[in-house]
Ribonuclease PH
Amino acid sequence: MRADGRDAASLRDIKIVRNYIKHAEGSVLVSFGDTKVICTASVEASVPPFLRGKGSGWVTAEYSMLPRATHSRSPREAVKGKIGGRTHEIQRLIGRSLRAVTDLTLLGERSVLVDCDVIQADGGTRTASITGAYVALADALRGLVTEGAIEAIPLRESVAAVSVGIVNGEVLLDLNYLEDSSAEVDMNFVMTSSERFVEVQGTAELEPFTVSQMDELRNMAMRGIRQLIAIQNEVLAE
Amino acid sequence: MRADGRDAASLRDIKIVRNYIKHAEGSVLVSFGDTKVICTASVEASVPPFLRGKGSGWVTAEYSMLPRATHSRSPREAVKGKIGGRTHEIQRLIGRSLRAVTDLTLLGERSVLVDCDVIQADGGTRTASITGAYVALADALRGLVTEGAIEAIPLRESVAAVSVGIVNGEVLLDLNYLEDSSAEVDMNFVMTSSERFVEVQGTAELEPFTVSQMDELRNMAMRGIRQLIAIQNEVLAE
Amino acid sequence: MRADGRDAASLRDIKIVRNYIKHAEGSVLVSFGDTKVICTASVEASVPPFLRGKGSGWVTAEYSMLPRATHSRSPREAVKGKIGGRTHEIQRLIGRSLRAVTDLTLLGERSVLVDCDVIQADGGTRTASITGAYVALADALRGLVTEGAIEAIPLRESVAAVSVGIVNGEVLLDLNYLEDSSAEVDMNFVMTSSERFVEVQGTAELEPFTVSQMDELRNMAMRGIRQLIAIQNEVLAE
Amino acid sequence: MRADGRDAASLRDIKIVRNYIKHAEGSVLVSFGDTKVICTASVEASVPPFLRGKGSGWVTAEYSMLPRATHSRSPREAVKGKIGGRTHEIQRLIGRSLRAVTDLTLLGERSVLVDCDVIQADGGTRTASITGAYVALADALRGLVTEGAIEAIPLRESVAAVSVGIVNGEVLLDLNYLEDSSAEVDMNFVMTSSERFVEVQGTAELEPFTVSQMDELRNMAMRGIRQLIAIQNEVLAE
Amino acid sequence: MRADGRDAASLRDIKIVRNYIKHAEGSVLVSFGDTKVICTASVEASVPPFLRGKGSGWVTAEYSMLPRATHSRSPREAVKGKIGGRTHEIQRLIGRSLRAVTDLTLLGERSVLVDCDVIQADGGTRTASITGAYVALADALRGLVTEGAIEAIPLRESVAAVSVGIVNGEVLLDLNYLEDSSAEVDMNFVMTSSERFVEVQGTAELEPFTVSQMDELRNMAMRGIRQLIAIQNEVLAE
Amino acid sequence: MRADGRDAASLRDIKIVRNYIKHAEGSVLVSFGDTKVICTASVEASVPPFLRGKGSGWVTAEYSMLPRATHSRSPREAVKGKIGGRTHEIQRLIGRSLRAVTDLTLLGERSVLVDCDVIQADGGTRTASITGAYVALADALRGLVTEGAIEAIPLRESVAAVSVGIVNGEVLLDLNYLEDSSAEVDMNFVMTSSERFVEVQGTAELEPFTVSQMDELRNMAMRGIRQLIAIQNEVLAE
């Protein structure tokens, strides 16, 4: 039994609220327990310079946390004048995850920029961001179909992400902040609905991990992501 | 009758939800119609260098908008690497407004930093921010009393703000984005519960304004702020 | 009687020297007592991106202080690598004030950039800047007429600015640094020759102010600006 | 047979030259084929603020590429004024890999900063950096023992890294630039001499990958890292 | 005969006005013809970190140009967010020139920061800056003696600077902007009153120069600097 | 006899290794004793904006030091977010030196960017950079001739540089770090094969220098540069 009453293999309470911000082409408020992220998908008519004239679209992401999303206040990156290494890592991860399931050629020469802004953080902000960003992206792409800009939604399959870790020797699913900060090992899996991996990132925070531990973490993550994809499907069917 | 059904002297639907972010000492979600701002008040044990050892506290503010709070997406200031002029103006205004009603000596050598993050913008983000920030500040200061750090809440009175403007020759209260972007004159008033002004800012966007127009704008703003202060009192009494 | 011998309703010694910098299309050295600002107006053949192809011109301003314009030396913004909030506020104010009296359509697709550089500061640098900038702008626009680029000077009326404040309970005109730093209330008025306001900014530095105090400040400012406009006219008639 | 004559499971020609830069406490030139990286380890007497007074040391890394290390010239990050996302990701990875095998408490309150500067790039710059950085770190720590600052070398085991990938459906070890840029899947493994993982990073560049592909990639990487660790041991025994 | 009526070996009209800015410990307006520079010397009670506790003072300089000091407007370095290479070169040169004649030990643990701000540029801004900065520095140091902080003015001798160049094959003294921009060779000499050199900088802009040309340039510069030092002495004797 | 066994008028051991980096159009590793610099010349198809459409090419340079090139580690300029004054000075010097011997019109509308990255520093990094950069530039230009882009190598003559200084009253050639840091006077000469000067920079670090000392320094530098040019010729003839 974990501090918040879950067993080792349970996700936190997962919620995805669609159409959360009225201006955006797609937008959700995603909650993994007390972790809450606003994901908005903005469609833009242009592509980055390296893609111009190549008939392909682009999907990218930016990630940020409100200063008081965290237990103690963190200074704004805008005030520091530069984006930190952790932010860079996470937003690149979100972008790659979304591109892996998008048919960029079908999208045509346009971009979707997904902003993931954490308003309250309690561990797993990057996995909640990817899981919510997929829904915001799907809504924005549906809108393009509705307005006749493209013929079909250019998504090959769906994608979601979850964290797993080893805490006090035990393998746990979907770590909250307290668990995460005492984890020996921390892994994030990004998997598609065809049960294939887009991203795998494992870090030994305190103690390197063995092949068999990696397999156990992977199995638990796969079970969690299957549930997240089911929730995405349910929400998108509303 | 205005586009959203209000008459000239009416506020939009005003909501202030307290305890919106679990980590912050004070936090609200304030809505002025479709304008929504998260205000968090963070108590810090130190003061800026120019106040060290002087027995006085400090209250300051930072302001930002999520990239897709606006109709079309605005680039992040963190990406541009610097904070723009408009942001500077607004956050300095919020800070001065809060300090005007705070007894900084009673606060003792500690700071309260209020973050106002606009998650959806529809005009009047600075006035909604000030009105919400006061409630978040009050909650954070109450917490200091509760935990015995200070004896009484160091607030002399309450403060709220509203915009007024001249649109097509007519004086209107609490402009939404559409009204604001076609206004000839735009004024913001920050007033305390003793009906005294902390800040007055008026700008002729298209056409300079006369003394009598300024008086009319002021009267309408004063009526609006009285209502906002009543709502603050109600919410804080819950 | 004030420390420098003036009575409450008097301006300091005002001087405007035209053609102060030989390269600029318009340039003045403006003095409000010991506050001295070099204002240069530079005509450029282009407009900002948001105005391209719209047949309208643009007037904007930049403001800075030499490091030792102030009593103790202030670090350069170029060394800090960013422009501070106060600078942003002031240069946006100067730009708006000048645009309010300029017919931007008559100006055609060109820009006038007015630089206000304070070489010695003793309070009221922003009001001196606006008052001097108008003269530099007028000279630059005259030059455009002389060289046949436009047919008439695209100025609808003239504009000047002054500060007023409450110091020890007394309403004073055109505060110097010593007065300004002990003022309870500080207001800046920007008014045109038709006695209409372009900008009104009032701040309670120590104590909020009442409606009747605001009226008294406004009356005194209006009298001061009438005198400043008379001086501008005189200088421009030389 | 690969373009450079290797079979799928072979490393490129690996060389580690010790004592390459005379000023540094530890320094190597590491080559993975045509990828060449200078790694220097600098011992500093202080630790970052979050560790001060806690009796623990710190190991961190910085990574950069000379502008013409790559096929076409890349602008310097110093000229752009900020460090890019890829650089951040890589230098954080190197730092975590080294800390995973270092006993920071035994190190005492001092830091080792390892700089990895790529002078010629041909794929695998991050894995070459980690493999070389370990040797530079070991040399710097030996120096601390030699001069009596610490009693034993505070390294629990050794660490090395290699890339693996799927190119045209085939699993390959230690990809060069040409292979890397056409890979469907790209994984980096960081493993210690006890055959435990410090970091695992896998990215589907074109096509998500299955569980069995991940296992195949992992097996090949483990074989490659065993050889790299043997080379490190050999070089350090000289 | 040159365009402005001088012969090859003549300085432009040189003026040094002392006590130009009321706040600064030393300040001058120096003119070399149409080149005008405000030099202020600010005394600060601290020294840079590398000198703390060593009983030595420091003299340094900053240099800047108002945006419209030049024929066409140059963007502010504060707006660009960084100081350019030319500015760096010049301010380092001014600082070294002043330190060469200052007895830093006699100065004690305090700094003098000399700001050279060009308000109008017509060639030779760096040599005018050095020549004026010396007088501002001397005044600031006199002030320290007057207030009893130090016993004697810690200046070993005086220093001034001039430019020389080869234009259309002819060696000219004190080039104005027009001459400077068409010069084949451009040299700046900084010399003390004992006729010794502090700095020599020569650049072949179009054509390398011979030993004998260098000697001719040097002789002419020495004659010019002797005159500048005479003017400094005269002004300081007032 | 100097600390490293040389007499006053001797160069250190000079080595220039061509084709050091495989990607660059020209590249050398140049050593002046323990000072080692990688110089790469990159040919680009464009010219800076101020040269576009004028039928002229451009040669420019960038300079940097690896953090641990120096005795104690220096922070990266990319981390500080800006390039320091010393770097600016040196890279401008290298660029001017190379342009002085290049026929930019013959080069056509293309640029050569020479990067000088110091991997180990022991005094004289700028003079080693210029001497090596010339060889890298020559190789890149030869490549353009070989591929038929231009008809002849657009170099009018060769160029090299050396430092001279006065240490303990004695004039020395090619100072190493130890000598340089205790020098009373430090001069750098850049001279072409026709024995004409491109750049002369002399600085009195401790004590101003006389005309006759300058002549002695110049003679010794000229002898040193003649030897460096002979080595360049030899290396380029291989």
Observations:
- The CA atoms of residues 109 and 126 of chain D lie 28 Å apart.
- Chains D and C do not touch (no CB pair under 8 Å).
- Chain D has a mean pLDDT of 95.
